[in-house]
TrEMBL record:
This is Secreted protein. Keywords: Signal. PROSITE patterns: PROKAR_LIPOPROTEIN. Residues 1-22 form the signal peptide. It comes from the Bacteria.
Length: 126
């Protein structure tokens, strides 16, 4: 009888540990996503300031490069379909702004970018 009780307790402890570990992984993923979304929001704000700073056009490219790096990191660390779509939409907006800047537009429309960043933030909010 003791063996059955010990086995049942061990099985229960293992199940509890597995559940707790899975829960921690989900929390860690959500926190990582939230940190990345926060970093992206900061980068989008920096891009807005770069657009306003017409004296230094290199800031636009640097800001876009920063957002691209943050998106690459996010895409490499997620398998969530909603998050992948939001990151893809944000990447598309960055590409469109980069194209406009390369064509000489010093004040590109940032609305699609801010909308996509807002969507990504919603997806990342636990």
């Amino acid at each position: 009888m003791r063996r059955h009780t010990a086995a049942a307790l061990l099985a229960g402890a293992l199940a509890l540990t597995a559940t707790a570990t899975a829960g921690c992984t989900a929390v860690d993923t959500a926190l990582g996503c939230a940190r990345t979304a926060d970093a992206l929001a900061t980068s989008v704000a920096d891009l807005s300031q770069a657009v306003a700073d017409t004296e230094d056009p290199t800031r636009l490219t640097e800001s876009l490069d920063t957002i691209d790096r943050e998106l690459a990191t996010l895409k490499d660390t997620t398998s969530d379909a909603d998050l992948t779509k939001a990151a893809g939409d944000l990447g598309l907006a960055v590409g469109n702004i980069r194209t406009a800047v390369d064509a000489g537009d010093t004040t590109p429309d940032l609305t699609p970018l801010t909308d996509a960043a807002g969507e990504l933030t919603k997806v990342c909010t636990p």
